[in-house]
Specification:
Helices cover about 10% and strands about 50% of the residues. The chain is built from 1 helix and 10 strands; from the N terminus they run αββββββββββ.
Length: about 130
């Protein structure tokens, strides 16, 4: 017996099975790369890392905002906020890090970027920065 596969389940299955990027549990969005790790000399900004943000929900969504929790020294620019993303469509977020103080190899600065769709935080991107 064959069961039909809807576009939603197909997108979700492909995103979960993909060897690149990550999908937050129950999320409408997938990130590639799934985590950002940056290292820089104090007071020097890293080159920005492109993060591809893909809509895996099976429906058109609009990202209402991106918030940052923690992670002094991180910055981001994007073309995602207030843009309609059809199912399977992507936008780009650029993340960079400028360490504010030396912390040594044991000190990691962490930030979480939250993505808001329809007033709800639906996905989170982790970023880690280290001063050398």
């Amino acid at each position: 017996m064959r069961l039909p596969i809807s576009a939603f389940w197909l997108c979700l299955l492909l995103a979960i099975m993909s060897p690149i990027g990550s999908v937050a549990g129950g999320s409408d969005l997938a990130f590639n790369p799934g985590t950002v790790n940056l290292t820089a000399v104090v007071g020097t900004e890293t080159a920005s890392v492109d993060v591809r943000v893909t809509n895996v929900s099976g429906k058109t969504i609009t990202i209402g905002g991106i918030t940052q929790e923690g992670g002094a020294g991180f910055s981001e620019i994007d073309n995602c906020v207030a843009r309609e993303l059809r199912a399977g469509a992507s936008c780009t977020m650029k993340v960079s890090f400028t360490p504010l103080a030396a912390g040594g190899h044991d000190h990691i600065t962490n930030a979480i970027f939250g993505f808001d769709v329809a007033g709800t935080q639906v996905a989170y991107l982790d970023a880690h920065g280290q001063a050398i």
